Amino acid sequence: MTDLLPVFDGHNDILLRMFNAPQNREAIWLSGEGKGHLDLPRMAAGGFAGGMFAIYVPSAPEPGAPDYDALMENPPYAVDLPKPVPLDVAQGVALAEAGHLLWMERASGGRFKLCRTAAEIEAARAAGVIAGVMHMEGAEAIDEGLDALHAFYAMGLRSLGPVWSRPTIFGHGVPFKFPGQPDTGPGLTDAGKRLIRECNALGIVVDLSHLNEAGFWDVARVSDAPLVATHSNAHAVTAATRNLTDKQLRAISETKGVVGVNFGVQFLRLDGVKNPDTAPQDILRHLDHLLAILGEDGVALGSDFDGAMMPQFLQSAAGLPVLVRAMETAGYGKPLIDKICWGNWVGVLERTIG
Ligand code: ZN
Fold first, then answer.
1. Quick one: how far is CA 226 from the chain centroid?
2. Contact 226/258 with Cβ under 8 angstroms?
3. How many A from CA of 83 to the centre of ligand 1?
4. pLDDT tens digit string along 5-45?
5. What confidence tier does 62 reach under pLDDT thresholds 50, 70, 90?
6. d(CA 193, ligand 1 centre) in Å
7. Domain 7-352 is of which CATH architecture?
8. DSSP annotation of 236
């Protein structure tokens, strides 16, 4: 344990796994169920010492929808976005997932703590306890009056993306397309701009991942916090709509913000194919590009564990040391690896949530 490098990860979807199979949550979390990417034993084995846990509302299956996975295995592809999710449906799902996260802390027997400040995250690390931060991926569960934002803040919410690609009352996201540009339509609505200001006032990170370009620039104009993309890669390397252009990366850098590298293979590989035959080099290529623009303080990890197809060498959190070794082999020094794996996330959280 002690020789493992602690990793803070910007994005995972284990709460969706629990929402889909609540009867299995003890196995999913405590013992591991032999599938998925995260559970307490494999997080401990890989040095996963903290992360942001996403509340995400899945879309209902639409009759006649194409096989999206098959499309992404054969670029070029362009996947339509699902319909918006109504507030009442979204709030029920989001409450259930928030409940799972609170249960995870209680059930962990002191191995996992839901943290509300950077100081709590550092204290958890010092005590050998895994730190969780509540995130919301897509603000479908927030009403236009923003009352629910305050309620979720009280539950522990400290990071929020106005959209998960699918449109909300707050803005528009990018449809999944490769190759494709992120400039795909209108940006934030007036309610979206109020949401950003309220997040600033409360101390909630505004997540740029999944926003389209117009929405990105609206956040950049309205927000007074460092710009953050929890799980996005470099568009100059992999030309997927979900990745960030150099111009966007420079804007994030100007605010001393952070980008977490997404391990989802279709956002990593040069050919944009959804194929797990993906090497550490594919992650390093993005890290190198992001480092060249954002500098050593602006790059971190944002796995998308339990939310995307992972590379073969990184099939769960237990594989994180392989990535750390690849960074060492590539000549990244220990101080830089420490920043990418831990310090940059905790630093930007300290500057935003306190
Ligand atoms: Zn995502």
1. 16
2. yes
3. 17
4. 999 999 999 999 999 999 999 999 999 999 999 999 999 99
5. confident
6. 21
7. Alpha-Beta Barrel (3.20)
8. T
Q: Quote the ligand 1 centre to 131 CA distance (angstroms).
A: 20
Q: Give 290's Cβ-side CA count (13 Å radius).
A: 30
210: amino acid identity, one letter: H
The 10s digit of each residue's pLDDT in 138-154 is 999 999 999 999 999 99
Q: Which two structure tokens, joined as six digits, stand for 303?
A: 């796995």
Half-sphere exposure (CA, 13 Å, Cβ side) for 114? 21
309 by Cβ neighbours in 10 Å (0-12 / 13-18 / 19+) ranks as middle
Q: Which of 255, 300, 235 is nearest to 52 (CA)?
A: 300
For the record, the structure tokens of 219 come out as: 């956040």
Report the DSSP beta bridge partners of residue 114.
132
CA dist., res. 281 & res. 265, Å (int): 12
- pLDDT band of residue 69 (cuts 50, 70, 90) is confident
Dig out the tokens for 220 from the structure: 């950049």
Q: Which residues of 100-125 are buried (b: 16+ CB within 10 A; e: fewer)?
A: bbeebbeebeebbbbbbebebbbebb
**CB neighbour burial string for 130-163, b if at least 16 within 10 angstroms, e if fewer:** bbbbbbbbbbbbbbeebebbebbbebbbbbbbbb
Helix 213-222 with 190-202: angle, nearest 10 deg: 50
How much distance in Å is there from the Cα of 327 to the middle of ligand 1? 24
Q: First and final CA of the chain: distance in angstroms?
A: 29
pLDDT single digits (tens) 160-209: 999 999 999 999 999 999 999 999 999 999 999 999 999 999 999 999 99
DSSP code for 319: G
Q: How remote is the CA of residue 254 from the centroid of ligand 1, in Å?
A: 24
- Cis (ω within 30 of 0) for the bond into 179? yes
- The alpha carbon of 232 and the centre of ligand 1 are apart by a number of angstroms equal to 8
Amino acid identity of residue 131, one-letter, is A
Structure tokens at 235: 């568009």
Per the document, the length of the chain is 354
Q: Chain-wide mean pLDDT for the chain?
A: 97
Q: Would you call 132 helix, strand, or coil by DSSP?
A: strand
- In this prediction the pTM is 0.98
